[in-house]
Amino acid sequence: MVTRSESRSEFSAQAPSAVVMVRPHHFRVNNETAADNRFQIWNDDVGDLSPLVHAEITRAAALLHEQGVVVHLFESEDSDAPDSVFPNNWFSTHAGGYVAMYPMKDLSRRRERRSDIIDMLKSRYRVQGVIDYSGLEADRLFLEGTGSMVLDHIDRVAYAVRSKRTDPIALERFCTQFHFEPMVFSAKDPSGYDIYHTNVLMCVATDFAMIGLDMITDTGRRREIVHRLKRTGRRVIGLTNAQIEKFAGNAIELQGGNGRVLALSTTAVLALTKDQIDMISVSARLLPLAIPTVERAGGSVRCTIAGVHLTPRD
Question: Which parts pass through the membrane (predicted)?
């Protein structure tokens, strides 16, 4: 069994100290993605939600900054990219100086890819190369970044729920290039619908993992996943279906100025039990971020944050 220090201040490959966020000026719940995202709340009569989301992301970025997390905050003026608030789906960064760009299922989401974000990463961090998988879209092979995959940067495992947005061929290519072991499984909500993204189901932190075990349909695979997580010395915190629906699994561990924090929504925190909070608090402070309007689009805090796993330039 791998063991690690419980010290919150100790560096962890799992917890980036810098993030990219995008503040949208033309936010709306995207009806193009609603077909396979059961977490979306669609209502034509709610009016313009952009000012509310702009304020929520502004405040969330400020709270992360107060915790000592470096926040690279970008604006999105594209009215045809309603989900631009979720940048973690189209790119990810990796130790060793690499950036991956991903094939997106829906046309509107492909508009979220931005050269200025990649250029910023190259100028501020040591980037050796950019691996662009977006060409797989022509063959309808999709892999929506760290939405499709929950990456264990310590044990080098890519956990991935089978869905229309996560193609096994694209996943295999990524894992081969970036030296992860793919662990694919099926998961469904209580109504029998496929879970659209893995990161609404689970969060892997340095010393613990949160996961909606009851949604994993294969009991044998469920045991394998729990065993693999425990083998690394992590505490496995099982989440109920109701907690998953409140985005309790859509969290990300970050390295702050005074130790590691677990960023998640206020909706998610309210769904956790005291025992679960106590287990998390052993190694990370909870940082609730209020983004209820963003959550109408079917994603929560983890989806709004793209972690930077790169070495800063001097």
Answer: none
What residues make up the domain containing 69? 18-307
> Comparing C-alpha atoms, which of 235, 227, 220, 221 is closest to residue 279?
235
Using the 8-state DSSP alphabet, how is residue 157 labeled?
Answer: E
Given this model, what pLDDT does residue 314 score? 82
Coil, helix or strand at residue 94: strand
- Is 0.85 surpassed by the pTM of this model? yes
Between strands 259-265 and 252-256, the pairing is antiparallel
Residue 124 class from Cβ within 10 Å (0-12 exposed, 13-18 middle, 19+ buried)?
Answer: middle
Q: Please tell me the distance from the alpha carbon of residue 111 to that of residue 92, in angstroms, as a whole number.
A: 16
C-alpha separations of 282 from 63, 158, 266 in Å: 21, 25, 20
Which token pair is 24?
């949208």
CATH code where residue 145 lies: 3.75.10.10
Looking at the structure of the chain, the number of domains it has is: 1
pLDDT tens digits along 40-65? 566 555 667 889 999 999 999 999 99
Non-local (6+) Cβ contacts of 103 within 8 A are 133, 134, 135, 136, 137, 141, 142, 143, 144, 170
Residues 6+ positions from 298 with CB-CB distance below 8 Å: 29, 33, 34, 37, 38, 39, 40, 41, 196
